[in-house]
User: Fold this.
Amino acid sequence: MSVLFKGGTIVSTTGRYVADVYTEGDKIKTIGTDLDVPADEVIDAKRKYILPGAIDPHTHIAMPFMGTHAQDDYETGTIAAACGGVTSLIDFDLQQKGETLLEALERKQALADGKVAIDYSLHPAVMDPRPEVIEEVKKACLEYGTPSFKIFMVYDFRVDDATMIRLLEETKKYGGLVQVHAENVYIIQHLNEVLAKQGKLAPYYHAKSRPNIAEEEAIARAAKMVELTGSRIYIVHLSSLEGLRQVKAAQDRGVQVFAETCPQYLLLDEERYKEPDFNGAKYVMSPPLRTQASNDALWRGLKDRSVQVVATDHCPFDFNGKKDMFGKDDYKKIPNGAPGIETLLMLMHSEGVVKGRISLERMVDVLSTGTARMFGLKDKGEILVGKDADIVVFDPDQKFTITQPKLHMNIDYTPFEGIEVTGMPSAVYSRGKKVSQWNGDQMEFVGEIGRGKFVKREPSES
Ligand code: URP
Ligand code: ZN
Ligand code: ZN
Assistant:
């Protein structure tokens, strides 16, 4: 299968230029002007951008959580991804008690293989940090192709600081990366008790129970562990101005603290929790939505490069039947998480680039090129000869109003309902094969279930 994209504007992290792109099989074969080669498919890409497919390094597909499961499986989740211009995802793989990391990886690969429509990888989440599991970090980095390790500082399955230190030391030896959900569990437990005594149990108090200071303290502490060990850390779903201050403070000291944020922390704020009829539950996620001051600070962090990646934390639970199942009378029982994989690129382009908050080139960096580099996806993230032909033909003028019935995620709402975006994919290619296209009204999936594959990632050389 070969495709010739004619006359599009190729966008990289450093600039843009008009050229033709020829792909053959899985790969980008040639880039040049006026390419005259026969191809199975010729695409007129004039006045369109040629973008590397977005990479979402933070998803929770089919994850068991808070008495239920995140609803997308690998089929529905990757169809939605493809329709949004996401051509690779890295999913969290929560180690069960007694499992090795390899067993955890094989368990999730068995669910994914044959079902994924785009390429994927996995981050093992270390939840049973037995000595032999810490030792297995070497193999995960050098053999399994999964050199990033998630830890939680909150939830029942959190790890303690001693485990964090051991993991940091071990990942440092083999070019691994520790990813941290950073919130101070004791602040949250204390505020949960205070709020319960006051009878404050509506969704809004979810935000009040997890204040910015809880994120700030946890990031500061994690950064100190990095300083101690000389290792590297990646803060997932950074949400607050105060948390960002700690990230920057560490970076200014030369400590390798990287950060990811998500569209919800850039675009939505805690007022959402006040929506009537329990609708505030739709936004119950951890960390919670903050205020405009944090939204603005995070946009600045993307622009000044203190935040390196935008991901989604895609973790969908239906409003009807899941969010309201246990949590009607207590925010603590509402499953934490929200959908987002399909709306990532359209929101970052429309709210970020079109509104002048970040450049188009920076968008490519935080959604594709920088993400591929951060997580060792060496064949992904750039429109370059030899790279995988993961390509989004993007129409920067196409309007679309985000609404749940026109999306493909397996859930009954989107937190971004009603936002009108400017700019949508015209067509999305995964390793040279079209997986989705604009049909004049919405995106439609045209790919093949099971064509996606597990991609081994490389450890960092630094
Ligand atoms: O609320 C969230 N973020 N749910 C998914 C699990 C996590 O903490 O990332
Ligand atoms: Zn988290
Ligand atoms: Zn998450």
